[in-house]
Amino acid sequence: MATTTRANAAATAAGAGARAATRDTAVAAADREGRGTPAPWAKRHLLSLEELSCDEIGVLLDTAESFKEVLTRDVKKVPSLRGKTVANLFFEPSTRTRTSFEIAAKRLSADIINFQAAGSSVQKGESLVDTALNIQAMQADTVVVRHASSGASQLLARELDCSVVNAGDGIHEHPTQGLLDIFTIRERRDLEGLHVCLVGDIRHSRVARSNIWGLIKLGAQVTVCGPPTLIPHGIEEIGANVAYDLDSVLPTVDVLNILRIQFERQHGAFFPSIREYAVEYGISVERLRQAREEVLILHPQPMHRGIEIAAEVADGHHSAILDQVTNGVAVRMAVLFHTTLASSGPDS
Ligand code: ASP
Ligand code: ASP
């Protein structure tokens, strides 16, 4: 496992030049001709980071880097997906992720349909697949789906002809969040050998699972830390180290990715009280003093200030939390760009 990881990481390094060329081709062509030449990317769907190779993750991150440059321009738009339609199909509350996909689609000149379950026929009992088939019948090229059930996006990928992008399915994966977290780290640090610690409710976190898969494939070392009841069995089998005592791992950590307690997914008491959780696992200014001077703080949001993270830490100089949000748009542009063109190809 470790050998494969290192081999993958070495392959990444060796392929860096080739991928930079790929990225330049994709975006320059998108700019020049109004339609990008898809980079070597064959997947119609993005359902998880588990199913991506190290190189495929690299293609998405490199493309996102170029799109990030587009976002700093006066005119923040490329014609890459002109004439294509992206449908946002959100069956769970979301502000950031839905908005981020919407902005990403608009920056690529796609048309965007926002579909929210509240007020829709879903409340009348329409099935997920029927709802999605109807959206597809309106000629959507890509469906972005957020759903409370793990596996919802896989189900749609089997049933629909268009591309499907997973925007968070139950406790399974949130691949674009994983990618944007990794992108934010990679902007600042070399991933090879980097020690990333995910703190909190690992059991109910789709963000944790996507981070673990992606980071390990790219050569980082991952530790998950939280109360024993919130660490799922078997997490070591996918390559993560497990720790229960945060203070003992903190001095060796380069990046802390702090997760929210997913109260809405917990059925039962997983720890005695919120106060005790905050004492054991909350990242306060005092606790952070034990960490390395240059430690990087991430949080996927929404945050519970004062529980898993102190306000001073969230807003302090170690924090890259708002950069994560900015990077989310660039990453989602890359994902929509590659998946949409892999499924429908450029318009003639
Ligand atoms: N579910 C949260 C929201 O949309 C966080 C996210 O998905 O970005 O606000
Ligand atoms: N926004 C992330 C998600 O939707 C994390 C969270 O909600 O805590 O999974």
Give a structural overview.
Helix 6 links the parallel strand 3 (142-147) and strand 4. The protein has two domains: 2-175 and 327-342, Aspartate/ornithine carbamoyltransferase (Rossmann fold, 3-Layer(aba) Sandwich), CATH 3.40.50; 189-319, 3-Layer(aba) Sandwich (Rossmann fold). The strands form two sheets. It has a five-stranded parallel beta sheet. It is of the alpha/beta class. Helix 5 (128-137) packs across helix 6 (152-159). It has 13 helices and nine strands. The site of one aspartic acid has 7 residues, from helix 4.
Task: Annotate the secondary structure layout.
Layout: H1 2-14, H2 16-33, H3 54-70, E1 85-90, H4 96-107, E2 111-116, H5 128-137, E3 142-147, H6 152-159, E4 163-169, H7 175-186, E5 195-199, H8 206-217, E6 221-225, E7 241-243, H9 246-249, E8 255-258, H10 274-281, H11 285-288, E9 296-298, H12 311-314, H13 321-344
Helix pairs in contact: 2-3, 3-7, 3-13, 4-13, 5-6, 7-8, 7-13
Bound molecules: aspartic acid (ASP) (2 copies).
One aspartic acid is lined by residues 168, 174, 177, 206-207, 260, 300-301.
Please estimate the helix content: 40-55%
Q: What's the helix-strand series?
A: HHHEHEHEHEHEHEEHEHHEHH
Contiguous runs where pLDDT drops below 50 for at least 5 residues? 1-23, 32-38
Bound molecules: aspartic acid
CATH architecture descriptor text of the largest domain: 3-Layer(aba) Sandwich
Computed over alpha carbons, the radius of gyration is 20 Å
SS elements, strand count: 9
CATH superfamily of the largest domain: Aspartate/ornithine carbamoyltransferase
What is the total number of structural domains? 2
Average per-residue pLDDT, rounded, comes to: 88
Globular, elongated, flat, extended or rod-shaped: what is the shape?
Answer: globular
Number of helical stretches of at least 4 residues: 13
